[in-house]
Amino acid sequence: MKALVCGGAGYIGSHMVRALERAGHEVLVLDDLSTGHREAVVNAQLVLASLLDESRIDSAFESFRPDIVFHFAALSIVRDSVADPLTYYRNNIAGSINLLASMRRHAVSSIVFSSSAAVYGLPSVGLIDESQALCPINPYGSSKMAMERLLAEAHVAYGIRSVSLRYFNAAGADPEGGIGEAHEPETHLIPNALRAAAEGSPLHVFGRDYTTADGTCVRDYVHVCDLAHAHLLAADYMRHRDGAHVFNLGTGRGSSVMDVVAAVEGVTGRKVEVVYSPRREGDPDRLVATHARASDELGWSPAMSDIESIVRSAWKWHAQRNY
Ligand code: UFG
């Protein structure tokens, strides 16, 4: 299969490129390197282009003639989306519209879309399934919800098949090394906790008065390689299945911030100095998903997503990272 990977120089996208290459597929990466890294694209050809530039997208379709699109290209920092919703809507929605329009022009009819747990907002249930109401509480989540909706409508209107994968907390790195999580600035818990362990600097823990067992937020951490594997299964699923589908990608298990700190201390053998800080605005107490639908329909189950394996792979990346 010939796969166009938009956002393939980013964290999850670069792991997807590797999964596709390992499975013997041909890959073209399209990325504007606004948040991605050239070094993360090791073998595949990279087209340096933004999804806001329709003519560059068209050229990529014309020269590469993909069978399928994997779409990871989005801005994803919740706090920034609140500060600048126009930029988030332009990138995440207008850019995606350009991509879909180009797909139509070039008769490409399958797309796997990166959605997010952020579409659920502040869910009231302990274990989230796909029937939960969508109620995003920030522009980032709204942009993902809007795209899911558009994909459903694009199926009815144009016959475009899609699978939207709602990631819970993507984490970890390819155990074989060379690629990993590298955001600037880094806002995510696991890389921040690893840096605190490595440098002996404090980790700010945002809130200890949540209604959870230890008072810190609970999240469902999923290994980035498990996420990539789900995309391969989704591509296969669409070969036989028409429609616009959505699946949660979570493990069904939650880890609190302090569980993560304990795992980081265990893996690194170093103490993490914790400084309790005020709650970060918009953080739900608990976000944990059932992946029953993804298991039943796609045959997906997370194989590497126990918190220790996640932290171990992330620590290896942290120690050798080159970008
Ligand atoms: N946290 C800290 N200290 C830090 C960083 C994070 O205490 O230095 C806490 C957060 O407050 C939160 C938990 O660790 O309780 C996890 O935070 P992350 O920033 O790692 O991840 P989020 O759950 O906030 O965000 C993730 C994705 C977003 C997505 C969101 C959906 O990164 O893209 O899930 O809710 F929108």
Descriptive tags:
seven-stranded parallel β-sheet; three-stranded mixed β-sheet; single chain; 10 helices; 323 residues; binds uridine-5'-diphosphate-4-deoxy-4-fluoro-alpha-D-galactose; 41% helix
- The number of strands is 14
Distance between the termini: 30 Å
Bound molecules: uridine-5'-diphosphate-4-deoxy-4-fluoro-alpha-D-galactose
Strand content: 15-25%
Average pLDDT number: 97
Helical fraction equals 40-55%
Order of helices and strands: EHEEHEHHEHEEHEEEHEEHEEHH
- How many separate helices? 10
Inertia-based shape: globular
Order of adjacent strands in the largest pleated sheet: 3-2-1-4-5-6-11
- Largest beta sheet, briefly? 7 strands, parallel
Radius of gyration: 19 Å
Structure description:
Helix 1 (11-22) packs across helix 7, helix 4 packs parallel to helix 5 and helix 6 packs across helix 10. Helix 1 (11-22) links the parallel strand 1 and strand 2. With 323 residues, this protein is an alpha/beta fold. The chain is globular, with a radius of gyration of 19 Å. The longest helix has 21 residues, at 85-105. It is 41% helix and 18% strand. Uridine-5'-diphosphate-4-deoxy-4-fluoro-alpha-D-galactose (UFG) binds next to helix 6 and strand 8.
